[in-house]
Automatic annotation (TrEMBL), chains A, B:
Residue intervals of the Non-reducing end beta-L-arabinofuranosidase-like GH127 C-terminal domain: 558-657
GO MF, one annotated term: hydrolase activity, acting on glycosyl bonds
Keyword tRNA processing set for record: no
Entry protein name: Six-hairpin glycosidase
Domain Non-reducing end beta-L-arabinofuranosidase-like GH127 middle, first and last residues per copy: 446-540
Pfam family, one: Glyco_hydro127C
Ranges where the Non-reducing end beta-L-arabinofuranosidase-like GH127 catalytic domain occurs: 17-430
Keyword Cell inner membrane: no
SUPFAM superfamilies, alphabetized: Six-hairpin glycosidases
Length: 662, 662
């Protein structure tokens, strides 16, 4: 099972467990809330191709109309809904999906074209602005929606029109004469086409994805031997001395991941979601082509070096990426301020989801716990913080520190609403991230990436095998495994990720020899047959960590297991300066406190952990001073709570992850 | 004497002294080198109004033609040359000035208009793009050139045509019907008009300056009740959805200091040179109008709060301002990285000159040594580093740390050549910064802002008084004053600035009572009559200082007196990483070493001052780590040299001011 969006069906989360509770809320609250938002904003009916008053609104990011992404909002909601319907049937959701699919069918042009904006607002202008408009991005999300639809409904009601649209795209784009040598400004369709290829086996779907990937950023593309976006821009009559008001610079094609061909990129640049979606497709292309093929040998080093650049030099402690708001993406190496008033911090929810997608692809190529560590980090922190406990409010931006300008808060919806349905679909197929597996007759290999109370049920040629994790993860590091087989013996190999953050760990009963490769403990069929029940224990304790010295952040973070902590004014009601001046003493003992409201979690109390506030009086009227950064004021207790829990318990939106240490 | 550009004539620098040597080089080398550059680039002959091939060059910063500033380059060179001719006549320079003035006369339109670009390249388009084009900026520099010309030549050969041009501007701009309610994108003419007003006494010159200052940024200006740049842009047919490629954002009028009226600005924003030139004019308007007038009461608090914001939150240790390259200006509060690879550092030479201009105006309003401290800091560091020891190479940008992308180096000229002639004219009238004074019959008040070997000679109604400083400043803090009077007794009050950096100081012989106001020691006529010779002593010793904690810069700087130090690879030939990884132990003793090559200066040696290099190995493949920032490698000596001396002694352009401390 190559894709988590398919493999997740074999997983059942234990009722009432950490992720089961979150998924229940998404299923019962978020899906309906988002359906409601689709309806009231006009998205729901948009595939009827009637004029909507908002189509006259001036674009917030000219030339991109505000309704530009509506097709994808529908596609992602259908995708998420189909995953969640697998848990429990829901009549209203089912009816909405069916109606949406009917509207999509009805919106298709005779030649297969399918897009709201270019059907209603600018007919005749299709494919004239691949750089800025999101036609192909939308197509990608419709493909992913259709694949999920097919998985649940087991019919082609949605896939059929989408395949017809893809036929048009296959005919339109490519390097043959009369084809357009272009590629989408926002990658997405590449990864969707690769997933589609698995289902259709149609080589043209693979080839189109590969063309989009390889042609992107080509400075001598097409018959004109020029950069496609230059050619296209000229054809639109754009003045080369001016640029759209939201562009960061002239020919800033790094924003679109198209400044140079991906094979030549040395550092991860530009829009972080675009980067992740593109790299996910590139990694998947490597996997499909095999790492030692010509394609694999070209692109695997690219994926690896861009990943390393990202993780080592351009990632936040939460797994979040993207410091720069202007282009929603990466800054220079080690430029990782915590919030707006310190220089920026974007860490878009979708980007964290993208990191998880990429890490998952990397694990398929190279089973190295490093990738799973980052995937787990994003899951519990940069991604999970993007949705409220009640499932009805979302964060687009996930800063590490609030400021008066940008409080720590969530919103019920966004004009550009990519993040909310992205969270929905991610939690929908979450089981696909927990483990990956392959089966062959009576053989099975299961790689356990994440620990959580869940069961994996695999059907082999003659047997059924069930692997159950019982655990209170992420609060407790003990995981009880039970393996149960129905039918003849199965040759099962189990590979358990040893978390990078675990200072110690053990398996009980302990195997005679620990067979560890790249951070995974390989448990043999033989040992498993003798030990159908065993425990992995990764003791969790609060720890204080620091960012890379070149980030110039004189701060420390509190973590426990995979969870990154923050402080909020809800627990420190006197706080007025977003904890910017708070001096943390990382040497005080950290006491853990289990809480049950508003959800179960462990708070961490640092008694007298705040040594006071930074004393900056030496610098009054001065540029520099001999004064040392002494602190003033009383010591106070600090209460750390999980970062994902922020903005759920009242307060005035004051929050900080990294506290200053001296 | 209100303006240093006039008052400097009373000062003579002691031959062979620190500033005398620099001014001799500027006079004998820089002036000629710059004249040569004016000739070979086409600037020299440009007022002949012939086509120059470079006029066809595509603009580097569209829509601003590269030759846009040529008028000002001529104006500033004439200005600087006239100041320096006062020291020694120079036949070639004199001839060039005369020829230039003839060409300027010949270039004037019958109605007074005077501008190279709009006469040759775009006739008929004058005053259609005040926002981007530098017509009025150029006019300002021509006014300043004409004032200097008149001061030296004592004729109106240059001032006459300029006054005719100003008449046209007075008629063109203003709030009357049929007048244009616009103002220049780059302030300069405001401060020039105020200086002109002093000479002409023509109220219209004052009023036009005041109009430009008050109208700037008015959101409801003119008969259209809109922002003038919006009106103007629309008239040019600009698309509101696009912007010139070098603009940082839509309607980024803070770049032009026009986002809101200056009276409403709370923080110092945008282009740092434009900010300083504007505030210099505003401060001067306050002085002219008197601080307690309506105008003074409106604008003095503005000047004070923007100055405070700049000095306390947006200035580098060198006095340099402007972290952001894109708009050559200010970043957010406390965002002060040292170099390109850390997020930026611009600190343009002209901006430092602008800070000096503003500080000098502030001192006229409020004699507070704080302003003189900053003025001295800029003079010896952010400004002086902009010119090489041989006077033939210049720095536009003055970063605190080099990087592979931006080495520490100077250039012989720039396409936009504002900085080189700005240094020339500043050193030309440097005497005007040393002291300010007022005389009235037989009374004189002299405020000594800077210490240097120089003599001030003042002619009173019946007497001549001569005040001489004998000192090795900035290397030695002892200053011997001698006061000599010819003629009847003069009622002289002397006010000596006590430098903010001086940890101790004394005057010998010591007055019975020390009368100190805002950092100035007031010496009475009575005491001075009894002590015509005395010494001020401000012992100089190496000291280690730090930036404000909120700058997040974990570094320390070495200073001595007013001099900021740096390390260069010339003294540490093994250095390859721009001292970025060097860990400095600020507790080691600092040894001073007097050197005479390539110029006299004091180097500071920190024996075993480098504790090794930052050990970042704990962060390999990690986002965060529990590892502490330990250092690895051997201790090594560090040799600090004055920052202004950088890039004068060979090496590979590796340099850093702030070294990391643990």
């Amino acid at each position: 099972m190559e894709y988590p969006q398919e493999s997740f069906v074999a997983t059942t989360f234990a009722p009432g467990s950490f992720w089961a509770r979150r998924r229940d809320i998404v299923r019962t609250q978020t899906l309906r809330h988002q359906l409601q938002m689709l309806r009231i904003t006009g998205r729901y009916d948009a595939f009827k191709l009637q004029w909507h008053p908002s189509y006259s609104d001036p674009p917030t990011m000219w030339p991109v109309p505000n309704h530009q992404f509506w097709d994808s909002d529908i596609g992602k909601w259908i995708e998420g809904a189909c995953y969640l319907l697998m848990d429990h049937f829901d009549e209203d959701i089912d009816a909405a999906i069916k109606e949406l699919v009917q509207m999509i069918q009805g919106a298709q042009h005779p030649d297969g074209y399918l897009n709201i904006h270019y059907s209603v607002v600018e007919p005749g202008k299709r494919f004239t602005n691949l750089r800025d408009m999101h036609e192909l991005y939308n197509a990608g999300h419709l493909i992913e929606g259709a694949l999920a639809h097919r998985l649940y409904y087991k019919n082609d009601d949605m896939l059929s029109p989408i395949l017809k649209y893809v036929d048009l795209l296959v005919a339109t784009f490519g390097d043959q004469d009369a084809q357009t040598p272009g590629y989408p400004g926002h990658p997405e369709i590449e990864l969707a086409l690769l997933r589609l290829y698995k289902v259709t086996g149609n080589e043209k779907h693979l080839k189109l994805a590969q063309f989009f990937i390889e042609e992107r950023g080509n400075p001598t593309g097409g018959t004109e031997r020029r950069h496609y976006y230059d050619v296209e821009s000229e054809a639109r009559g754009e003045n080369k001395h001016t640029l759209p008001v939201h562009f960061p610079a002239a020919r800033s094609y790094w924003y679109q991941q198209a400044h140079v061909p991906i094979a030549e990129q040395e550092t991860i640049e530009g829009h972080s979601v675009r980067a992740m979606y593109l790299l996910t497709a590139v990694a998947d292309l490597v996997r499909i082509s095999q790492p030692d093929s010509k394609v694999g040998a070209t692109f695997l080093p690219v994926v690896n070096r861009l990943w390393s650049n990202m993780v080592e030099k351009r990632s936040y402690v939460t797994g979040g990426i993207g410091a720069i708001k202007q282009w929603e993406g990466f800054g220079i190496d080690y430029f990782l301020p915590q919030g707006t008033d310190e220089g920026g911090c974007y860490a878009e929810t979708c980007a964290a989801i993208g990191v998880m997608m990429l890490a998952e692809r990397q694990l398929q190529i190279d089973l190295d716990s490093h990738y799973a560590d980052v995937m787990e980090l994003c899951l519990y922190n940069a991604m999970l913080t993007g949705v409220s406990l009640d499932g009805k409010a979302f964060a687009y931006v996930n800063q590490l520190a609030s400021s008066d300008k940008d409080l720590s808060q969530r919103h019920e919806w966004f004009e550009c609403a990519c993040c909310p349905p992205n969270v929905t679909r991610t939690l929908g197929y979450l089981g696909g991230y927990v483990w990956s597996y392959s089966t062959n007759e009576q053989k099975a290999v299961v790689n356990v990436h994440l620990y959580t109370a869940a069961t994996l049920r695999l059907h082999l040629s003659e047997s059924m095998i069930e692997i159950t994790q019982k655990t209170d993860w992420p609060w407790n590091g003990n995981v009880d495994f039970t393996i149960r087989t129905e039918g003849p013996l199965v040759d099962l190999q189990l590979r358990l990720r040893i978390p990078g953050w675990a200072e110690s760990w053990q398996v009980t009963p302990s195997p005679d020899q620990l067979d560890i490769h790249k951070g995974y403990l390989y448990l043999s069929a033989e040992w498993l047959q003798q030990n159908s029940q065993f425990q992995l224990s990764c003791p969790m304790q609060s720890r204080v960590v620091k960012p890379h010295p070149l980030t110039m952040q004189p701060v420390a973070y509190v973590m426990r297991g995979p969870i990154v902590y923050c402080v909020e004014d809800a627990d420190h009601p006197w706080e007025e300066r977003h904890f910017k001046m708070t001096v943390f003493d990382p040497k005080v003992p950290l006491r853990e406190e289990t809480r049950s409201q508003p959800d179960q979690y462990i708070a961490i109390i640092a008694e007298n952990g705040a040594k006071g506030e930074l004393d900056t009086s030496h610098w009054d009227r001065q540029i520099v001073s001999e004064g040392n950064n002494a602190h003033v004021g009383e010591s106070r207790d600090l209460c750390f709570v999980p970062y994902y829990l922020r903005a759920n318990r009242g307060g005035r939106g004051q929050m900080r992850v990294g506290l200053r240490v001296e």
